[in-house]
Structure formats: C-alpha cells, structure tokens
Amino acid sequence: MDYQFKEIEKNWQQFWADNETYKVDNNSDKPKYYVLDMFPYPSGAGLHVGHPLGYIASDIFARYKRLKGYNVLHPMGYDSFGLPAEQYAIQTGQHPAVTTEENIATYRRQLDQIGFSFDWSREVRTSDPEYYKWTQWIFMQLFNSWYNLEADRAVSIESLVEQFEKNGSSAVKAVSDEDTLVFSADEWKSFSENAKQEELLKYRLTFLKESTVNWCPALGTVLANDEVKDGVSERGGFPVEQKKMMQWSMRITAYADRLLQGLDAIDWPEPLKEMQRNWIGKSTGASVIFPLEKGENSIEVFTTRVDTIFGVSFLVIAPEHELVSSLTTPEYSAGIETYIAQTKKKSELDRMADAKTVSGAFTGSYAINPLSGEKVPVWIADYVLAGYGTGAVMAVPSGDQRDYLFAKHFDLPIIQILDAQKDVEHEADATKEGRYVNSGFINGLTYQEAIPVLIEKLQELGAGKAKIQYRMRDAIFGRQRYWGEPVPVYFKDGLPHLIEENELPLILPEVDKYLPTESGEPPLGRAKDWLYKGEAHYELSTMPGWAGSSWYWYRYMASQADRESNSFAPKSAIEYWKDVDLYIGGSEHATGHLLYSRFWNKFLKDLGYVIEEEPFKKLINQGMIQGRSNFVYRVIDEEGKGTNTFVSYGLKGQYKTSAVHVDVNIVENDVLDLEKFKSFRPDFANAEFVLENGRYVCGVEVEKMSKSKFNVVNPDDIIERYGADTLRLYEMFLGPLEQSKPWNTNGIEGVFKFLRKFWKLFHNDKFEFEVSEGEPTKAEYKALHKIIRKVEEDIERFSFNTSVSSFMICVNELNELKCNKRKILQELVIVLAPYAPHITEELWALLGNEKGSLSYAAYPQFIPEYMVEDEFAYPISVNGKMRMNLNLSLSLEAADIEKLVLENADVQKYLDGKTPKKLIVVKGRIVNIVI
Ligand code: ANZ
Fold it and tell me: For 277-325, where are the E strands, in sequence order?
C-alpha cells in the first residue's frame, strides 16, 4: 500500500484515545519527568501554525523521554477566563461560558489532529468551578498570611495577632504597608474588632488598598503594568489613564529577594532572567533625612549615591508627595497648582521616558543638608516618581544628568565635587571617577571609599541609613470585569472578610448584561440577590487573568481520582512529581505569568503545600512563527486611481502600482491561482492580469501572522493535505526552536516526500509490506547507529531541526543501500517515533509488534563499534583515469593491497593480460596503475 496518511493518522489517534495510551500514573518505579506547555487561551480564531510549534517540540521531548524509560507527565488544559470571550459577550449577548466551550472544542479537535501525547484525563480549565475553587482557596491562604522577615517566609496571620497580643507592634519584622501603627500589647487589646482588622489588612499578603492604577476606560478595567505597552492596552490598543481606586493587591514585593536569588538556580534563557531581574530592580543605596528649615517635618530621600551628598544643591519631590501642600508658600501656590494639574495628564511611563524636557515648580520652602548644614530649595518635578523609593530625591547637578539639566534650566547652583569630572550633560551618571573635593570629611576619598563612611556617619546622626529598594510594586489583583474568578470575600462595616473554606467554590453568578452597572460598579453588581448569607455584599471585582495560571501545573499532578481529595493536589502527588522539568512557552510572559507563578509557588512552599522553591527547572522560549505574506500589484492609472489590472511581480517595474495583500491560501509557490483570486474579493471578479511566462508571480514579505495580512496558515489545511506527521516534522525543520522564523509552505513537499521514502523502505515495488530477516551489512549498521546517536544528542540539547535533516540523510543512505532489513528498520522506527508518531506506529504494528507498544518501547542503544571506519573505497585509476572503487580493509598494508587489486576481476579487464609498468599504492587514499 502507498503511504495513506489520512487513514493511518485517524486510526492511531482513535487507538490512543480508546486505550488511554498516554494516561500516566502517579505510582511508578520509573523516574518521573514532567513536560509542560504554557496552556492556551482558547480564542475564537482557533490555532494557526505558529501556535503548535512549542507543543510539537515538547511532545517530541515527552515521547523521547518515555522511550528512555521515564514516567512522563505531559498534560494540557485551557486558560479559559479572560477578556476576549467577554468582549464578544458584550457584542453578541452570548454567555462567555458558551463561547469558551465552543472555542475549547475547536482547540481540542485541532490538538488531537496533530497527534500529541497528552494525558487528557488531567485536563484543567481555569473557568471550571472545580478548578477555580482552588484558585479561590489560594487567595484565602494569602489573605490569612503575612510575611515574617525574621523567618524570611510567609506565616499564618494568627501568629501576628499572637505577637501583637504579647508585645504589641514593636518587635514585629514584617513586609507591610507603610502606614502601620505603633502600639503596645495593651493598646492592641483595647482596639475594637474593626480597628484590629483594619490594622491586619496592612500585613496580609493579599490586601485592599487605595492605589494608583492603570485604568482603561474602553475595556472598563484596571490593567497590570505588563498589560500596558506604550501607554495603551496590550489587548486592543486602547488609551490607559492613571486613576486612584480601592484595589486588591498581592504583596509580591515580600518575595523580591527570593525571586531574585531563585533565578540563579534555574536553567532559563539568560535574557529572560535578565528581564525579571530588571523588573524586580534591586537598588542598594541609602535613605537620607533632610530636615525642613521651618517646622517639624523632614524629607526623606532615597539615593544610590550618598557619596554625592556634598554636591546637593536642591531637593525634588514628586508632585504627589504628601508634603507638597504644607511646603508650598502662598507666593508659589499658583505655580505649584498649575504644575500638579499638568502632571495628572501624564502616565508614569511618559514621565520616565521624557527625561530631556525639563519642567518643575518651586515650593518656596527650604530643607537642610544634614551633613553640610547648607540650606537647599525644595522643588517639585514629574521626573520624580511618587511610587518609587520615598518619592523624593537629593539633586546633584554635577553628578546626575537629569539634575544637571534641571539646574541649568532653573539656574540653580552646580557644585563641583570630584577632581576628575566627566561631562554631566551627556553622561547620565558622571561621578564615579576621581577623588572628592568640596566634600568636607570625605575629601580625598574615592566613591567606593566614601559610601560606607557616609552611611555610618548618617546613622550616627540619626539622619539616614543603608536601604535596599526594589522597583517592583505589589501586584494589583482585580479586574472590574465579569469573566474571571469571583473573589471569596464579603464586606461587613466596610471591611473585607473571607467566606468559609467549605463554602468554596464561590460560583460566578449570572448577570443580565456583561457591562458595568448604571452606578459604575463592575458587572457582578448586576447579579440579583447575590449576597453572602442573604445580607452581606460580595466583592464585585473578579480576579485578574494571571490568577488561574499561577498554580495550574500543580492541578495536573492530581490524577482524576486525586481530584476528589480535599486539596488542589494530594501531598503524595506533589511529592512524586515535585516540579516541572521542562517548560516550553513564549517569552512574552517573562514579567507576568512567569513571575507571578514563581511568587505563588514560593508562598505555597512557605505554607508547606508544595516542596520545591522554584516551579520550572528548565524553560525554553520558542520563537514566533511569522507570516509570509503574498502581494499582488494593482496598476494605478494616470489619474492616480487603482485599476482592476494586476501585474506580475517581475514586470511591476514597468507600471505604477500599489501592493495589495492576497490570501496565501490561494497562492502556491508564490504563483497566484487566478480563478480563486477572482472569487477572493467581489471587486476582483473581473480582474485582468499582466502575466510573466504565462503565470502570475506574487511578491513576498515576512510579517506578523495575522488575519488582516491574509497570511494565516491553518494547521487543519496542512494536515488535510500532507498529514500531521509531515506538519510536525516540518515545523521542526523550519529552524532552531528558539528562533523566530517565517512560515514558508514551499518547503513542505520535501518533508512529505521524505516520509513517503521512509514508508517505501518497508515496501517492495508492488507496494507490499516486505522486510528481510537478513543480517545487515556494516554500512547499514553504520547508517542506523549514526542516526541513533545524532537524534539522541539533538533532542537532549533541544535541537530538533537538525534531527530532521539527519533523518533525511539516513533514509537516503538506506535507500541507496537498498536496505529493507528488519534489524535496521525496526530500530529506525523507534528513533523517528517522537517526531512522526503515526507512521511509525503503523510500521511498528506491520513489523509484527503489539499494537500501540511503540510509545513505551526502548530507545535503541548506540553502539560505537559500528562507527569505526574499517574499510575504505579505494579509487583505482588506470593510466591516470579513475575506473572504479574497490572496498578494502584499512588494516591492509601496501603489499597486500597491491595483491588484491591485481587479483580483482574488474581490474584484470583493464589490464587485458598485461603486467603493469608501475603500481603506486597510497594507503588510505588511492591506487594508481600505469600500463
Ligand atoms: C543622588 C544621585 C546622584 C543619584 C547621582 C544618582 C546619581 P535606581 O538605581 O533606579 O534605584 N531617585 C530616587 N528616587 C527616585 C524617584 N522616586 N523618582 C526618580 N528618581 C529617583 O536610581 C536611584 C537614583 O534615582 C537615586 O540616586 C536618585 O538620584 C534617583 F550622581 O540620588 B540619586
């Protein structure tokens, strides 16, 4: 039979499903291996060929690991809460659950067609109450915990209450809000219950707080910093503004140092780790207190360059700083007010990016430099951010570029403090070379020498101390939207309280519309009679997109049976699977999902629910598959109007044209299908063409794969035409996994032909299955063992593309050797199986093996002896002409070679009975005969 991929693939997919071939057990003597993909958001558009790239790579790895004797957990699920389903619901009135269900069905069908070895019995859906029950449960644990800096971990909030009851607040070392109260044990006991709860909220790891948020009016929700790109929402590109709101937050900053340290222990791409490091943004410096000239107050600044303190010629505080109004003297109040109004219009990103335009306003007040005793003016300016450090800086125009530009602009003093001064105007940070001058007791010191001396002095004076500052903020944990997890909280006297654990899940209620209420409350405000115990109001915002994906890999560890247990995954399952050995997904999640997941993981570990500090041991970012767009060229007439004539790419230079995207699915090898083009768009129905060599050749460009560019290739179409095995091999063949690369269907034929050639090795000329039982030759063994070793090495270093070309070479070699020996082919089937699971299952069964046993066969052992070159095909030339090759052992000496050459029947034909005049043997190279 010819290679009937359709039937073969359908049958095997059915077989794997019926037999639960990839269902994995939590009890096994084999070593465990956990291969995880970033689960998809099931969008309405379904999968395009870019999506499965990472899934194919991880599936190859998972299949390979099974062959290597591992018990492999390779699950899949859906991140099924989120904005697009809800936007669609708003437009159509369709319940997001319904569209989500439909989209999941499409995804499942598409995934199944590709032949993945997922254990579907462990599927998760974040929007399923059985799943989000545990997301809510984790939220409750966070609410019930605080971060004890002494223990350097999260502990139960009861232990904080105990400390307060025993010693008051003084001995507590916690990561908390800044406005915590100072009280004795007795004072604590005298607090009302509500006052206690209010105080505890400042310590809880998830807490309500008024904060400035990125508010997107068009989406009607708050967005996380990583969901805002260049001042607009990442989804949809809508404007985003700053707004103060009561919000749920997660105290991720408590974990800043552990998140930083953990990076050193995991095998992730360096650029990704660097992105996390920058996001966390640890700065080591000092806080310095500048008392005000008048009154009791003082301004605390954060500086990384306390050594420049003698160069300070003014202070700048953020326009939002709490002291602004009290510092502003009547004379300057108009200027300050105008400036504050201006600042409100700018986003934080604009403020940071806009370093060159100088703006600011003088408050009219002065502060005192605690070391020099000098009086310095206090200004406000938007380059100082309210949320970073203390929201105040000591300005050093001779050292810092922004301060320099500011001083120049407003004519403020510039104090020279180093003997080797660099060009401050052009260098952001110019004071690191030379020794100090004009700097009191640090004169003559270098900057490294000065810092510890100054910190000690400040500490002595009670005017400052060493301080570590993080750029990362606590993470906002709420959306004013419908399609997300309800927060398991109700309100009493304006304070949040958790519902009982046994009341979980708190089910997402039905609403009549997916829009905010008339009074501006989130959509959940529309739910009828949705009250806790019939009286208390629930929290109306829902959890953000990252909630459900911050722990999902643990749910997969729970088998179907385990899921009945009263935990997100039973201890035994967590002890067995521990962590993810290989995680494959996109780098766009660097500072979102991948940071939040590490945070929740560390938290769950602190509470003893999981055992590993880091969840994802090794991570690979797959590259993006770009679209390869095709263009036709519309001829423009003299008046500049587009005609209905299209000129082929090679001739377009002779006309005035404009390029128009054309659907890549009606183009083959860059040649346009004219009939399909005419029905592609109504206005093309009467199109005329200027052809070259009778064909219309399209132009090409590499762009993002997107519907609007008509360059989306659907895997369904490829599978229909060539089959899933070809798709899998081809996606890998495109290039290194980590690289971005364009999808180019032109090369797919070659891969398809390779599979047919491979199939043909097992069949005779009448296409009947036929393998020989004979003992393979050395050359045959060599071809096999070359590929055994190559594929093993390639997969172990995640170089999947190089294996594909090696398979092609191997099959060509065996083809030339006319090898159909079972001993060779059966092993080759196993080696190819991870890449092309269907065709190999079929051949494995045809070879007489038990159906379906290929997935758990043993990867063949590489035997180095087969690689030893012990023969050489000597070129034999007669009178300077190459006549033939003769295979001879490399161990033979010249005399033996001479003898064997002369005895050879073919050589004798050339000799024609004569004795050669000369016979030159170069060992391992050539034999020359002169007659
Ligand atoms: C004096 C100084 C002299 C500074 C000098 C720098 C160079 P990183 O490394 O990012 O932490 N700064 C402090 N708080 C700020 C805020 N809220 N908004 C804007 N800028 C702020 O940077 C810390 C430095 O940024 C601090 O050190 C402070 O300026 C400024 F030659 O203090 B420096």
Answer: 282-291, 298-303, 314-317
Query: Which ligand 1 atom is nearest residue 399's CA?
Result: 31
Task: Please name the fold of domain 869-930.
Answer: Ubiquitin-like (UB roll) (3.10.20)
Q: What is the mean pLDDT of the chain?
A: 93
HEC-encoded secondary structure of 539-561: CCCECCCCCHHHCHHHHHHCCCC
Residue 582 beta carbon below 6 angstroms from any ligand 1 atom: no
354: pLDDT strictly greater than 70: no
Q: Is 283 a pocket residue for ligand 1 (Cβ < 6 Å)?
A: yes
**In this predicted structure, what is the pLDDT of residue 65?**
98
Query: Where, residue-wise, is CATH 3.40.50.620 in the chain?
Result: 32-138+546-621
Could you name the CATH architecture of 32-138+546-621? 3-Layer(aba) Sandwich (3.40)
Measured between alpha carbons, how far is 559 from 563 in angstroms, rounded to an integer?
6
The helix (run of H) or strand (run of E) holding residue 742 is: strand 741-742
Q: Which of 382, 380, 381, 324 has the alpha carbon at shortest distance from 350?
A: 382
141 band by pLDDT with thresholds 50, 70 and 90: very high
Q: What is the pLDDT of residue 240?
A: 85
Fold of 282-470: Isoleucyl-tRNA Synthetase; domain 2 (3.90.740)
Please indicate whether residue 305, judged by its CB atom, sits closer than 6 Å to ligand 1: yes
CB atoms within 10 A of CB 28: 12
Task: Return the residue whose CA atom lies nearest to atom 12 of ligand 1.
Answer: 393
Q: Which two tokens stand for residue 469?
A: 């500052």
Q: Which of 183-192, 701-710, 813-822 has the lowest mean pLDDT?
A: 701-710
Neighbour tally for 788: CB within 10 Å: 21
State if residue 393 touches ligand 1 by the CB under 6 angstroms criterion: yes
Alpha-helix residue ranges (DSSP H) falling in 425-504: 447-461
Q: Among candidates 897, 903, 886, which has minimal Cα distance to 923? A: 897
Which atom of ligand 1 lies closest to the CA of 318?
17
Q: With bands split at pLDDT 50, 70 and 90, how would you rate the model's confidence at 419?
A: confident
CB distance 401 to ligand 1 below 6 Å: no
CB 511 within 8 A of CB 44: no
Which of 212, 305, 306 is the best mutation target for the ligand 1 pocket, counting ligand atoms within 8 Å of the beta carbon and taking the most? 305
The CATH 3.10.20.590 domain(s) of the chain lie at 869-930
- Whether residue 873 is predicted with pLDDT greater than 90 in this model: the reply is no
Q: Are 86 and 514 spatial neighbours (Cβ–Cβ below 8 Å)?
A: yes
Mean pLDDT over 661-672 rounds to 93
Determine the distance separating the centroid of ligand 1 and the alpha carbon of 393, expressed in angstroms: 6
C-alpha 38/C-alpha 55 separation (Å) is 9
pLDDT(430) > 70:
no
pLDDT at 892 over 90: no
- The residue whose CA has the least distance to atom 20 of ligand 1 is 384
E-assigned strand segments in 637-678: 642-647, 657-662, 667-668, 671-672
Is the distance from the beta carbon of residue 621 to the nearest atom of ligand 1 less than 6 Å?
A: no
The amino acid sitting at 241 is E
Residues 685-702: tens digit of each pLDDT: 999 999 999 999 999 999
**pTM of the entire predicted model:** 0.86
Query: Six-digit token pair at 260?
Result: 């930083």
Q: How far is ligand 1, taken at its centre, from the CA of residue 300, in Å?
A: 13
pLDDT of 444 over the 70 cut: yes
At 355, the pLDDT band (50, 70, 90 cuts) reads: low
Question: Is there an atom of ligand 1 within 6 Å of 384 CB?
Answer: yes
* Separation between Cα atoms, residue 50 and residue 70, nearest integer Å: 29
593 pLDDT exceeds 80?
yes
The whole-angstrom separation of Cα 146 and Cα 126 is 26
What's residue 352's pLDDT?
75
User: How far is 80 from 97, CA to CA, in rounded Å?
Assistant: 9
